[in-house]
Specification:
It is an enzyme of class 2 (transferase). The chain has 379 residues and is an alpha/beta fold. The chain has nine helices and twelve strands. The longest helix is centred in the middle third of the chain and has 69 residues. It starts with 7 loop residues before the first strand and ends with a strand.
């Protein structure tokens, strides 16, 4: 829609100042600005700066007359769409009218000007201008909407491909494990196969739970089981949950929390899931034997929880989208890591459900990342 605060410009062109002031007095009102020019050259300069809804042009002017100005306007990309009404004190015979229409005029008005006729015709073109601006605005909105739909469709296709890949791996491991168990007689080797299958089962379970959590949140079906919990217990639980992933990457994990308890009012399971997802994300995007740090500090009436790593970092152009659903960052090898790209989206949704906020800080590719979560404290 056209902004009501954006004025509509009318261009008045006449070599006599008194005529310009008279036209301005007739046409000026709220939301309309009259641009006055005393020559064709001045008019062209104004047209380079302003978008004009209507030009009222005196035919007889020294130097560049009204017809010549109209011809120049029709040759200018910024001005060729501006409707022109010629104002003439002389007779508008058929030849003059033909020249005027040929130059791009939409009408002629005879001097002395009849007030009601001038206002009525100006109102028509002002309204047409408003409608044209609204159409252009809607066109831009539709283009943006179409681009968003196209991006969402690409993300959907990427997600389906990732989902197929992520589900295929544990399923193939199960099939291979079952075939090996059928032929395996050694109890120790059977136990090892069972352990590997258990790891794949846990991975598959996490994928399914993440998918269900996204659906539940979108449908408003997650209700938080709030209670008084300490930040320290949340971080301990998250570290235990993420330990297999951290150990698999042989990362050095440092945990720094205050000795005095920091109390929150929240769902222990969901808060632990927030920190666990951040730790898992750090382990995923940090090369082997990297460094990961989780810390907590009280800052006035909020607690700040940081999860930092020295991993692949997040490119600047990716940082505004990293919390979007089905979005994955890529490492220096330009390959996405395992997972469906929903862990950080879940983090943001769960944090906001706890009246908190999550932030990302990264100097770019190869510079590591720091995710910071803020929650209000109680007590």
């Amino acid at each position: 829609m056209t902004s009501p605060d954006k004025p509509i410009h009318l261009l008045l062109v006449d070599d006599l100042e008194e005529n310009l002031l008279a036209l301005e007095a007739l046409l000026k009102r709220d939301g309309v600005v009259c641009l006055k020019a005393r020559s064709g050259d001045e008019a062209l300069e104004l047209l380079l700066v302003h978008d004009v809804a209507l030009a009222l042009v005196d035919v007889q002017m020294p130097g560049m007359d009204g017809f010549q100005l109209a011809e120049f306007m029709r040759g200018n990309a910024n001005a060729r769409h501006v409707p022109i009404i010629f104002v003439t004190a002389g007779s508008a015979d058929q030849q003059r009218r033909f020249r005027g229409y040929e130059a791009g005029a939409v009408d002629f008005i005879q001097k002395p000007v009849e007030t009601d006729i001038l206002k009525s015709k100006a109102n028509v073109f002002i309204e047409l201008y408003r409608q044209r601006q609204e159409i252009l605005s809607h066109r831009d909105e539709l283009k943006a909407y179409a681009a968003a739909l196209s991006a969402a469709d690409r993300r959907k296709n990427d997600f389906i491909a990732m989902l197929g890949h992520e589900l295929r791996n544990p399923v193939m491991a199960f099939r291979a494990g079952l075939q090996l168990l059928e032929r395996q007689k050694d109890p120790e080797k059977s136990a090892l196969i069972h352990a590997r299958m258990e790891v794949q089962a846990h991975h598959l379970s996490r994928l399914i739970e993440d998918l269900l959590d996204v659906a539940r949140i979108d449908q408003g079906k997650i209700s938080l089981q709030r209670e008084r919990v300490t930040v320290q217990s949340i971080i301990d639980s998250a570290v235990d949950t993420s330990r297999p992933k951290i150990d698999a990457g042989r990362h050095d994990l440092t945990v720094e929390v205050p000795g005095a308890p920091i109390w929150l009012d929240g769902d222990f399971t969901r808060l632990s899931q927030v920190v666990s997802n951040l730790l898992t994300n750090a382990a995923k995007y940090t090369p082997s034997e990297g460094r990961i740090q989780v810390s907590a500090n009280r800052v006035e009436d909020r607690v700040r929880i940081d999860v930092a790593d020295n991993g692949v970092g997040v490119p600047q152009e990716m940082q505004v989208r990293v919390f979007d659903l089905f979005t994955q960052s890529k490492g220096p090898d330009d390959r996405s890591r395992e997972g469906l790209g929903i862990g950080l989206a879940l983090v943001r949704q769960l944090v906001e459900m706890h009246e908190g906020a999550v932030e990302l800080e990264s100097a770019g590719a190869g510079a590591g990342s720091r995710f910071t979560v803020w929650f209000p404290v109680v007590g």
